[in-house]
Structures are given as C-alpha cells and as structure tokens.
Amino acid sequence: MATYPNNREELEERLRKHVEIRMTRQGEYNRRIKMEFLNCDFEQKALEIRHNAIAEEMNPLNTMHGGIVSWLLDSTMGTLANAWVMVPSPTLNLSVNFVSPVREGDEVTVRAWLVHVGRATISAMSEMRVGDRICATGIGSFFVTENRA
C-alpha cells in the first residue's frame, strides 16, 4: 500500500535513503553513474540531484551520451516517485528532449517534480541543467505497484 510523506523532513529522509540504495545496491551502472542528493521540496513534490560529467560518459562528439542523459532524467524522476509512494514504481514511459550538450567536467543538476500521483500511475517531469543552461528535459510515467513484500 502506498504511503505518502507527511512533511519535508520525511520526504528528505526517504529521498536520501533511495539515492543511497541506488548508488550502493542496484547494479553496476547505478554505482558508476553517481547521483548526489542536493535538495527537495515537499510542496512541489520535487527532487534535485547533482552529477559530475566524466570522460567515460562522453560519446565520439565529446558530449554526454544520450543514454546517460536519459538515465539521469529517468533515475531522478523514478527516485522521487518511489520515495513518494514507498512501493516499487518502475518506469512505464520516458520521453527525452536533448537541448544542448553536456561536456566532460560539467557539473550537472537534474530537477524532477511529480505532476500527478494516482493510485496506479505517477506522472513526472524533469530538466537537466549546467548552470543556467537547460541541456535536456524529460517526461515520465511510473507504475505504482502493490507492496508484495
């Protein structure tokens, strides 16, 4: 059964836990593509993370590979969705718009916010920035599973 956070402190605790789990226990790629919790907003149902772009994430054009960009957007929205309802919420749909390149050494921030939380699905939006420059945007939907544990 989904349980929603009651306040900012509870949301932040849930988000920090989910980011740590993603970075330590959910497979090699999750451990390699680092996400750092920056901030959350209870009223806006939002999460902001930081990531430093590294050489291994660059494509032949020396810009961040689109798969890494997509992973960061999806993972930020998914982390927020999972932490909000506290049941597994896998991605149903992901749409990404690539706006401007991310280069090696760039400090990337990704902000995600929940647009709708329903009994069966969650809708979210996200944007990736380097400083004030938007690099990519994403829209995702997530399936709210029943807690089968």
Which structural traits does this protein have?
single chain, 6 strands, six-stranded antiparallel β-sheet, Thiol Ester Dehydrase, Chain A, globular, alpha+beta, 149 residues
Would you write up a description of this structure?
The chain is α+β, with helices and mostly antiparallel strands and 149 residues long. The protein has a single domain (8-143), classed as Thiol Ester Dehydrase, Chain A (Roll). Helices cover 29% and strands 36% of the residues. The chain contains 3 helices and 6 strands, in the order ααββαββββ. It has helices at 8-25, 28-32, 66-85, and strands spanning 36-41, 46-52, 91-98, 107-117, 121-130, 133-143. A 6-stranded antiparallel sheet has the order 1-2-4-5-6-3, with helices on one face. A hairpin with a 4-residue loop joins strand 1 and strand 2 (46-52). Helix 1 (8-25) packs across helix 3 (66-85). The termini are close together.
SSE topology string: HHEEHEEEE
Strand order of the largest sheet: 1-2-4-5-6-3
Seen as an oligomer or otherwise, the chain set is single chain
The tally of beta strands, per DSSP, is 6
CATH superfamily: Hotdog Thioesterase
Mean pLDDT: 93
Note the overall shape. globular
Assigned CATH class? Alpha Beta
Number of domains: 1
Radius of gyration, in angstroms, nearest whole number? 15 Å
Assigned CATH architecture:
Roll
What structural class should be given to the helix and strand makeup?
A: alpha+beta
Poorly predicted ranges (pLDDT <50, ≥5 residues)? none
The description of the largest β-sheet is: 6 strands, antiparallel
CATH T-level fold name = Thiol Ester Dehydrase, Chain A
Which band does the percent of strand residues land in? 35-45%
Helix residue percentage = 25-40%
